[in-house]
Structures are given as structure tokens and as C-alpha cells.
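Researcher: I'd like a structural prediction for the single chain below. Treat it as a standalone chain; there are no partners to consider.
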Amino acid sequence: MSDTVIRVENLSKKYVLSHQQEGQSKYKSLREVISNGAKSLSKKLLKPSGKEIYNPSIEEFWALKDVSFEIKQGDRVGIIGRNGAGKSTLLKILSRITEPTKGRIKINGRVASLLEVGTGFHPELTGRENIFLNGAILGMSKAEIKRKFDEIVDFAEVEKFLDTPVKRYSSGMYVRLAFAVAAHLEPEILIVDEVLAVGDATFQKKCLGKMGEVAEGGRTVIFVSHNMQAIRRLCSKAVYLERGVTKNVSSVEDAIQRYSAQSSMSTFDVDLDSIYRTSEYSGLGEQARLLRIQLAPDSSFSYGQPLDLIFTICCTREISDLAIGIGFDTLDGNRILTLDSDQGQPALKMPIGIHEIHFHLETNPLHPSIYSAGVAILSNTFPLDYIPNAIVWEASSGSTDFVSDRSYGGCRLPVKLSILQRSEQALLS
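Model: Treating it as a single chain, here is the predicted structure.
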């Protein structure tokens, strides 16, 4: 009997994107809907048989293209790739949430998935009721769920709120309970997306330990994360995706190195508008949206040199308290540097339209290394648009003399010195 639990063969997934035409209103009246429907029907009736009418407002997008791999029982597999590489689409197909356009997928065993906050939970049911509901969905008997119930509640740390509808849970409570259910109800295959980033560092460590226990018990774990240290710690194999295509890698470390050395690190000019927002952030961007981030002309990202960043944003309404920020993390997931527009100065008042916001640092404090940068627009601390891990980039040493010893940490800043000369008499006394 084969020990292969997942076999993916030439898997492809196509989405059809509709683009709003110039001058076209975002909202349509009932009259426009009826009129457009009639026009569409007439075109179908009048077009020659077998011929498609070209529509410039429709675009095909292949999120995955001919993806193939095998996963064996007990494997701990990391899915690695930049934003837009197709990781979330792949997990949704593996979890049977969406169907592939082409290709085959064969799964042997029960699958428990944690892809986004609240997946599989009914918001009107209590935490207690959702535990039993999820167990039933996984095919477990009531007796089996009762046997694991106390362990799930203890792990999730939500005992006080067990009989509260989960729609009143915070995102952290939601994730704790969802992960506890997925990990403890004995699925043969556990799939976990970046959703664990919602929890605090202690909880993330706890989850990684539990996933390790699940794998040691002979079950299979599939894990997606931009935290390369977590991937190193947990995973024994890797699937590396680049623009929807699998690339051959010899090991987890090889995949991490490829992730770190992508061509996107050669420039810091990113079309943020085209980056797909995950489901957790898909509702953002309606009032203000990140369009682009770039280095200013004649600027560089070298340690010790002046740093000038330009953000391009679009506001669809007037915002009186806007702030914009960028955070730099190591590939291990540790925050090194945060730059905010409202640090020590008032929030921005932005009218409707497209705007450029310039950041200037006299000295770039980031030591030469590879960093992941996330960007956000906020209004009164509430995110209006957010893209974690928007770009992976390498800060260089430039022309500045640099000691290669990394014991200084991620940032090293110059200080202003003043020396008070004490009298000789004072020294002798």
C-alpha cells in the first residue's frame, strides 16, 4: 500500500477578472442592469456560431499553472512563495473549498484546514457548539469529540467564553479556538495558512509545538508562512511556488534561499495595487488604497546612506486622520524597524484623489541583510489598507565602511556626543 496521502498532477486554476471601463460608474441602477442584460443576450444571439466576442473588460488570470507534487504520510511540508505566488489558492483546492480548472488531485484521509479567521465556524453558534459542529464535519462521533473536548478548551484558553456566540470573539480568540479544534480532532492531514500571524508570539510558539506533535504522531502537516524561522523549525520538505508555478528545490533550506534571492530584491519599486489582498484584508482599500511604493530617484537602500521612499495612495473620500507606515522584518519574522507618518507629528488630512507621500531618513539604520517589508494605511489606528510582506528586499553596505559582525543586531544608529571636562581638582578629591 502506498504511503502517499496527497498527489497533485498538472493542477491549474483560472480566474476571470472583470475590469471597470473608464467613465463607468462603480454602482449601476436597475435600468442599467436590465439594459446591459438585454445587450448581452442580443450579442450571444447574433454572434456567429463557435466564435467568441472579444471583451476588453475581461481578463483571464491563472493563479496556478501545471502544479505537480506528492506528499507522503507524516511529511511536514512548507508551502513557500511571495504574495501572489498561488499559495492560498493551492490550499483552498487541497481543502476542497474551490475546484481546480484543470488537473487532478487525490487525497487519502480526513483534512482539517485553518485558512482564515473563522473558517468552518458558524458565527451564531457558541464556542461549545462549534467544537461539536467541526468534529461532525470531520466525521467524528460525539463520543470522540467529548473525549477531546477538555483538551481543546484548555489549549484555546477560551473557557470563560465557551457559551458565547463566536461572532463576539476577538480575532485572537477565534484563531485560538479554530486551531485547537483543527489540531486536536485527529485529522490525517492538517493544513494551516498564515492565519496564525493573528495570534501573539506565545500562542504561535504553542501552535508550532502542537503541529510538531501532530507530525510526530504520523499525521501530515501542510504549513504556509512568511516566517522562515518557523518553516525551518517545523518543516522537513518544501513546495516552492513562483507566479503559480512550482519550482524544483532540493530541501527546505534551498526553498528558503530561493525565496530570499528572488529578482524582486533587485529593485524597490512595487505595484501595490496589483498585489492580491488575502480574505482577511479583502474588505480594506475601499476608502484608501495603496497603489505603489518606490525609492526616490538618486536614493539607495544602502546602510548609512540617506533613505527616501515614495508612497502613492488613492483616497475615495476625504480622510482627516490618515497615517501611513512601513515595517521591516527579518525573514525569521522579527520586526526590526517601523516608519510611521504620524510618529511625533499630527495625522494627515487627505482629500479625495491620488497622492504621493514622501518619507525621508537622513541615515538608513538597517544593517546589510534581507528584509520583508509590509505597508499599511490607517485612520485613527484602524487599517484602511494593509499588505504584509509586500516585498522582500536586500539592504546593501554601499560605500559605507561596514563591519561584517552581525552582533550589532538589525539596526545601528549614530548618536550625538557631548563631553563634559571635569577639573583636575575634582578628579583628585
